[in-house]
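Example S7 (C-alpha cells).
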C-alpha cells in the first residue's frame, strides 16, 4: 500500500503557561497542507522488518525512526507480522511542519487497512499519541484546535477553500528546546478559538505565534521571509510551530505556481488549501 503523508501548519500559537512537569500548555490551530512524503508498506519478504529511506537524508537509526516506532506500537497492540517500509522524504524536517509525525500517523492508518484491523480513528489516535504529541492530529487530518501540551484536540470550523499557500523553509533548523527556552508564557487576552473567527484580513498582528519573539532574533532570515511574503500580498503570514518554516496565505490567483517567488537556498512549496 502506498500513502502520502502530508504536512501541517500552525495558525496562531499561544504559550499560555508553564506546567509543573516542565512542559508548557499551549493553544494552537493545526491545519493540514498538501506538501507530502510518499510511504509504501508491504508484507515483509524476509523475517524482519526493513526500512528504506530515499529523498531527503534522515540521520536516524532505523528503530528510532518515527515510522518504525509507529509500526512497533501497532505490532504490539495487534500482533502484526513484519513488514517492508519505503519512505521517500520530501517534507523538510526542523521546520515546524510535522513531517515525521505525519509519516508515523500514516503508517498507523496504512497498517489498519493492510491488515483489516477495523480500528476506529479514536483507537488509532490512542496509538499515535504514544509516538508524539502531534501525531494524533494526522489521524483525523482536519483543522483542529490543540490545547494542553498540544495533545488535546477539538475540531473547529475553518474553511480555507480557494486560498493558496506558500511555504518557505530556509536552511536553518530550530531545536524545540531552543524555541521554548526564549518564551515567556502568558494567557492571551482573547482565546485563539475566538480570534480565528475574524476575517483573515484582520489576523495579521492579532493571531500570533509566540515563538517568533525568540526565534526571529536568533535567525533573522526567518523574519525576513515572513516580511517578504507580506510584501508579496499575503493576507496572513506566520512562522509555523517552532519554525523555521514560514508560510503565507494568498487569495486565489495572487500567487501563481507558474511564476514562483525567488527565495535563495530555501525549500519552497506552493499549493491549494
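Recovered sequence:
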Amino acid at each position: 500500500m502506498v500513502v502520502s503523508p502530508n504536512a501541517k501548519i500552525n495558525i496562531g500559537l499561544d504559550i499560555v503557561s508553564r506546567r509543573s512537569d516542565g512542559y508548557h500548555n499551549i493553544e494552537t490551530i493545526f491545519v493540514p497542507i498538501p506538501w507530502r512524503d510518499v510511504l509504501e508498506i508491504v508484507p515483509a519478504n524476509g523475517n524482519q522488518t526493513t526500512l528504506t529511506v530515499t529523498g531527503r537524508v534522515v540521520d536516524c537509526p532505523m528503530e528510532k525512526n518515527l515510522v518504525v516506532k509507529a509500526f512497533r506500537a501497532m505490532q504490539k497492540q495487534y500482533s502484526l507480522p513484519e513488514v517492508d517500509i519505503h519512505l521517500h522524504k520530501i517534507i523538510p524536517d526542523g521546520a515546524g511542519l510535522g513531517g515525521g509525525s505525519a509519516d508515523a500517523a500514516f503508517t498507523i492508518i496504512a497498517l489498519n487497512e493492510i491488515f483489516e484491523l477495523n480500528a476506529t480513528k479514536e483507537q488509532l489516535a490512542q496509538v499515535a499519541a504514544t509516538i508524539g504529541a502531534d501525531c494524533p492530529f494526522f489521524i483525523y487530518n482536519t483543522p483542529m484546535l490543540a490545547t494542553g501540551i498540544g495533545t488535546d484536540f477539538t475540531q473547529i470550523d475553518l474553511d480555507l477553500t480557494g486560498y493558496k499557500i506558500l511555504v518557505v523553509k530556509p536552511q536553518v533548523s530550530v531545536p524545540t528546546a531552543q524555541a521554548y527556552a526564549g518564551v515567556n508564557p502568558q494567557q492571551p487576552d482573547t482565546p485563539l478559538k475566538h480570534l480565528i473567527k475574524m476575517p483573515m484580513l484582520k489576523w495579521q498582528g492579532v493571531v500570533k505565534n509566540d515563538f517568533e519573539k525568540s526565534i526571529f532574533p536568533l535567525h533573522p532570515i526567518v523574519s525576513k521571509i515572513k516580511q517578504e511574503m507580506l510584501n508579496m500580498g499575503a493576507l496572513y503570514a506566520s512562522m509555523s510551530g517552532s519554525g523555521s518554516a514560514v508560510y503565507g496565505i494568498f487569495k486565489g490567483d495572487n500567487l501563481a505556481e507558474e511564476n514562483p517567488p525567488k527565495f535563495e537556498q530555501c525549500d519552497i512549496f506552493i499549493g491549494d488549501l
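Notes on this example. The longest helix spans residues 99-114.
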